[in-house]
Design brief:
heterodimer; A: mainly alpha; B: alpha+beta; 55% helix
């Protein structure tokens, strides 16, 4: 059991290194640190939403189409 | 299924999927109007009601779809200008609602560009559209 878990230890540690980011700020509280946050937008999902809305506007689809269906 | 038989690449792949899922960055994210507020509902219905009039002006080349998700006035025409103003106001309401309800307030420009792309695709031949590089062309 322990041996099985060890096989997963390094891949998970590797991924946590990249995805589990912790920012520790130490400094003068009078001079706040600005952290640039980057967000990722799934353009494909957004395209589907836009298509549904434009189809509704043009009368091609009813209002129900505005709710994105799970893929 | 025996986990021990999985190779390293498979384990990394599954780990990545689990981590991304837990982080809320699942692949194929869906964005939608989660709550149909009175403002966005009015904006959508207004757009639907003026669709034919807008199409008529676009067919004449008086109005065109720009590359930022809005309508531009291409020829002097007071009535078309007034129509474009209210149309753009409603479009902005819709884009901002999507941004706010999907935690994408920093990505409003991306939302506008994606809508612009869809509007270009849906524009029928003969209409003026602004390409991504800024050039106006007749579709």
């Amino acid at each position: 059991m322990i041996k099985n878990n060890l096989e997963w230890f390094f891949p998970i540690l590797f991924l946590l290194t990249f995805y589990g980011c912790t920012v520790k700020a130490v400094g003068d509280p009078q001079r706040p640190i600005t952290i640039q946050a980057h967000i990722t937008v799934d353009v494909k999902g957004l395209q589907q939403t836009a298509t549904n809305i434009e189809d509704f506007v043009s009368g091609e689809k009813p209002e129900e189409s505005l709710k994105t269906k799970p893929q | 299924m025996t986990i021990r038989k999985w190779n390293a690449a498979q384990r990394i792949g599954l780990s990545a999927f689990l981590l991304l899922t837990l982080a809320g960055v699942s692949p194929g994210a869906q964005y939608e109007i989660k709550e149909m507020t009175p403002e966005v509902k009015t904006a959508l219905e207004n757009r639907r009601n003026r669709f034919d009039q807008l199409q008529a002006f676009e067919t004449q080349g008086v109005l065109g779809e720009n590359n930022r998700g809005y309508v531009d006035v291409l020829q002097h025409h007071p009535e078309a200008r007034a129509l474009a103003e209210v149309e753009n106001k409603d479009r902005r309401t819709i884009y901002q609602t999507i941004a706010q309800q999907n935690n994408l307030t920093d990505a409003l420009e991306t939302i506008e560009k994606v809508f612009a792309e869809v509007q270009r695709e849906k524009a029928s031949p003969g209409k003026k559209i602004q390409r991504e590089d800024g050039r106006w062309v007749t579709k």
